[in-house]
């Protein structure tokens, strides 16, 4: 689905409040669905958010990178996330950073070590030990997926203190991260998406 307002919008130059609103529109148009769904957490839900419909969208990926970049501390050297959901987010944020004169090395964290070659958990350039890395995620439910990335990255010697997600389903993830001493930020909450979706379908 390609909405004319999506292609006509100035994704690369619009101010951030306008960009955030356009990104919310896109989430509600292509990513948010209602029905009966089984989540990766094992929970059942009456709605589902397929974040990849936005993060792999040509304009959406630019919007994601531009919205996330200001949330990442200036001292950060790398951005990382658990494959597959975080892959396009990490790449988009790193690429957008170049245009803002920020160098953020993208790192992809495997769920299991590959069975050949270096058998690495983390793909991407090797950073110096102690490098600050922020973990990015598309949708957070219980918080377990991004936590796997945090643990792998810390095991590789990186400093990870923050997780940023595009959507917080508000089902325990924020509380879990707080208990782990991690800073947690979300661009949208599920309440934001559902309120806007209802408005669009009224």
From TrEMBL:
Record Pfam families: UPRTase
Entry keyword Magnesium: yes
Molecular function GO terms recorded: magnesium ion binding; orotate phosphoribosyltransferase activity
EC number of this enzyme: 2.4.2.10
Keywords associated with the record: Glycosyltransferase, Magnesium, Pyrimidine biosynthesis, Transferase
Entry coiled-coil feature ranges: none
One GO BP: pyrimidine nucleobase biosynthetic process
Residues at which orotate binds: 141, 169
Top-level EC class: transferase
Reactions catalysed according to its record: orotidine 5'-phosphate + diphosphate = orotate + 5-phospho-alpha-D-ribose 1-diphosphate
Protein's pathway: Pyrimidine metabolism; UMP biosynthesis via de novo pathway; UMP from orotate: step 1/2
Cofactor: Mg(2+)
Oligomeric and partner information: Homodimer.
Role according to the record: Catalyzes the transfer of a ribosyl phosphate group from 5-phosphoribose 1-diphosphate to orotate, leading to the formation of orotidine monophosphate (OMP).
Family membership: Belongs to the purine/pyrimidine phosphoribosyltransferase family. PyrE subfamily.
The protein's name: Orotate phosphoribosyltransferase
Natural source organism: Romeriopsis navalis LEGE 11480
Taxonomic lineage from the root: Bacteria, Bacillati, Cyanobacteriota, Cyanophyceae, Leptolyngbyales
């Amino acid at each position: 689905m390609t909405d004319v307002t999506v292609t006509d919008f100035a994704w690369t130059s619009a101010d951030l409040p306008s960009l955030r609103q356009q990104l919310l529109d896109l989430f509600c148009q292509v990513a948010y669905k209602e029905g009966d769904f089984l989540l990766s957490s094992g929970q059942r839900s009456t709605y589902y958010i397929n974040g990849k419909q936005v993060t792999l969208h040509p304009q959406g990926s630019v919007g994601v990178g531009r919205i996330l970049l200001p949330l990442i501390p200036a001292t950060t050297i790398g951005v990382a996330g658990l494959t597959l959901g975080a892959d396009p987010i990490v790449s988009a944020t790193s690429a957008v950073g170049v245009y803002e004169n920020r160098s953020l090395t993208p790192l992809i964290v495997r769920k299991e070590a590959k069975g050949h070659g270096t058998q690495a958990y983390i793909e991407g350039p090797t950073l110096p030990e102690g490098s600050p890395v922020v973990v990015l995620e598309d949708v957070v439910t219980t918080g377990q997926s991004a936590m796997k990335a945090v643990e792998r990255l810390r095991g590789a010697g990186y400093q990870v203190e923050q997780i940023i997600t595009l959507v917080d389903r508000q089902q325990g993830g924020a509380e879990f991260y707080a208990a782990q001493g991690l800073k947690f930020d979300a661009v949208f909450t599920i309440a934001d998406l559902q309120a806007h979706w209802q408005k669009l379908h009224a």
